[in-house]
């Protein structure tokens, strides 16, 4: 199986498990990956909590997400509150 086919199969399985469309699952993984690269000092759990808080605080999730990408590690303290 080629790598792109394997990735698509993984997306399909994860999208079924998390009740997301394939595109929504791919977008979720891209957000997590971008935030992990932007905030290498944060754990996956911390980043997940930030995404949840981000979606609760703003109807415009894109603007909140942009803020997370631009801030650096400053949200780490806030996630431990």
Topology summary:
Layout: H1 3-17, H2 22-38, H3 44-57, H4 61-71, H5 75-79
Structural class: mainly alpha
Termini separation comes to 45 Å
Oligomer kind: single chain
Unreliable spans are 72-81
Mean pLDDT: 79
β-strand amount: under 5%
C-alpha-based Rg, rounded = 14 Å
Give an overview in words.
The protein contains five helices and no strands. With 81 residues, it is an all-alpha fold. The model is unreliable at 72-81 (pLDDT under 50).
Keyword list:
mainly alpha; single chain; globular; 0% strand; disordered C terminus; 81 residues
Quick summary:
With 81 residues, the protein is an all-alpha fold.
């Amino acid at each position: 199986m080629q790598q792109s086919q394997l990735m698509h199969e993984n997306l399909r399985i994860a999208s079924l498990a998390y009740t997301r469309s394939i595109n929504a699952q791919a977008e979720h993984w891209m957000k997590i990956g971008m935030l992990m690269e932007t905030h290498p000092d944060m754990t996956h759990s911390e980043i997940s909590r930030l995404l949840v808080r981000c979606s609760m605080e703003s109807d415009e999730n894109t603007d909140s997400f942009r803020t997370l990408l631009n801030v650096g590690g400053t949200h780490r303290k806030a996630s431990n509150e």
